[in-house]
């Protein structure tokens, strides 16, 4: 038998049945939190203090948005004032890097975020660590007994490219995450293709709302610009689909 292929070598001698049960528990728990039926109305804004006290017993998830400023013109036509990174998740939904916090540890939220960033996108924490001052907002979903926390972190144009390149070496690349993607922050001449069509993706949790709030907060789009794109997106999803 080749090295590493026997059960005792691969699981440290533990009973394979108990390992499978442990795996199944985690897996089933994840299924509960990851079903793609999240609705915007289910996520209610909550302060960090209330989230950490009143809803301490809920599951907590933390996600982060990396962004930069820098004008970029596509085909001499469509202007973007910066870039935002999201990711294609293995379940086909779009989300931010991050994940569920382990309830057994009293780990600070931002530390959990940085750990997930290193695992999912291979973020170099010596250079690009998220700070508590990057915290933006939290939401509670009573139906799922879930709290989501959201951070945004600015880097430079050169740095965002470096981050994108190094994601391919992430531990979770090709498993949990299928790679980072840039958010198209413009609309083409038809008013739909670009950001409105991007918004029509299926987003995990309240990632779409986090994105829209993050964009305005960091100043990549004004609230008014964002509202126009959201209106186009709402029109777009009503169109018959071929
Ligand atoms: O980018 C996101 N923003 C907000 N909520 C998210 C995002 N991604 C996932 N979620 C929510 O958090 C829950 C757990 O997230 P995720 O699936 O990333 O954790 P896991 O990778 O630890 O299983 C999901 O059920 C979903 O409701």
UniProtKB/TrEMBL annotation:
> Under which main EC class is this enzyme filed?
hydrolase
- Does the keyword Nucleus feature in the UniProt annotation? yes
EC no.? 3.6.1.64
Cofactor names from the entry are: Co(2+)
Spell out the Pfam families in the cross-references: Nudt16-like
Listed A to Z, the keywords are:
Nucleotide metabolism, Nucleus, RNA-binding
Where on the tree of life does the source sit, at the highest rank? Eukaryota
Instruction: Give GO terms for biological process.
Output: mRNA catabolic process; nucleotide metabolic process; sno(s)RNA catabolic process
What's the protein called, per UniProt? U8 snoRNA-decapping enzyme
């Amino acid at each position: 038998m080749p090295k590493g292929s026997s059960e005792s070598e691969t699981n440290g001698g533990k009973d394979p049945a108990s390992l499978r049960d442990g795996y199944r528990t985690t897996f089933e728990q994840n299924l509960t939190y990851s079903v793609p039926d999240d609705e915007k109305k289910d996520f209610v804004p909550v302060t960090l203090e209330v989230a950490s006290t009143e809803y301490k017993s809920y599951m907590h998830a933390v996600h982060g948005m990396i962004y930069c400023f820098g004008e970029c013109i596509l085909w001499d036509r469509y202007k973007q004032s910066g870039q935002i990174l999201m990711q294609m998740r293995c379940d086909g939904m779009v989300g931010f890097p991050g994940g569920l916090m382990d309830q057994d540890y009293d780990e600070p939220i931002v530390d959990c975020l940085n750990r997930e960033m290193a695992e999912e996108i291979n973020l170099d924490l010596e250079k690009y660590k998220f700070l508590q001052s990057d915290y933006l907002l939290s939401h509670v979903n009573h139906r799922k007994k879930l709290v989501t926390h959201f951070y945004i972190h600015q880097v430079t144009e050169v740095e965002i490219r470096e981050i994108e390149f190094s994601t391919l070496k992430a531990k979770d690349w090709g498993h949990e995450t299928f790679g980072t993607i840039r958010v198209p922050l413009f609309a083409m001449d038809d008013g739909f293709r670009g950001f409105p069509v991007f918004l029509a993706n299926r987003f995990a949790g309240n990632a779409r709302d986090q994105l829209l709030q993050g964009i305005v907060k960091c100043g990549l789009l004004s609230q008014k610009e964002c509202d126009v794109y959201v209106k186009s997106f709402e029109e777009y999803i009503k169109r018959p689909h071929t």
